[in-house]
Design a protein that fits this description.
Radius of gyration: 22 Å
Low-confidence stretches: none
Oligomer: single chain
Number of strands: 2
Length: 158
């Protein structure tokens, strides 16, 4: 019983934290925050009271994020950029330095410098995974909310 409670608390707070961090990204922040609140609502009454308002806002934001093709394309490009950055970090490229000889001047990038800070597959895979989550949430939002968002947009113009 104590192990279950600890698992619920760790998972719930982790999702809440990730949701808050992801707020600036297109779409997924509120949905991740909602998932965290749903998990925490199993243990806390205050979390249960906040599920419905956050759910309504998260669904409204998700609906708005797939209401037009430019928004969908921007969200997809942002998620793909995050994945690409994760792969870049995973490769851990070396930063070349321009070697100089005082008498000859610059002779080109011959020395290999330090690696990218925080590079490596541990960091890169977690960043790329977050991009995959964003793409998954975008696909979910398109399937779940796209038709409704288009209908609302067309209804508002008439």
């Amino acid at each position: 019983m104590a192990l279950r409670k600890a698992g619920v608390l760790v998972l719930g707070w982790l999702l809440v934290l990730l949701g808050v961090i992801a707020m600036p990204l297109p779409g997924p922040g509120l949905l991740i925050l909602l998932a965290g609140l749903i998990v925490l609502s199993q243990e806390y009454e205050w979390a249960e009271r906040r599920v419905e308002p956050v759910k309504k806002k998260a669904f409204d934001v998700a609906k708005a994020s797939v209401s037009t093709y430019p928004k969908i394309v921007f969200s997809a490009l942002a998620a793909c950029s995050i994945i690409a950055f994760g792969v870049f970090l995973g490769i851990d490229p070396q930063i070349p330095h321009i070697a100089t000889i005082p008498e000859l001047g610059p002779i080109g990038p011959v020395e290999v410098g330090p690696s990218v800070p925080f590079g490596g597959w541990t960091t890169g895979s977690s960043v790329a995974f977050s991009g995959l989550i964003a793409l998954g949430i975008l696909v979910y939002s398109m399937v779940r909310f796209r038709a409704e968002a288009v209908a609302e947009r067309k209804g508002a113009k008439v």
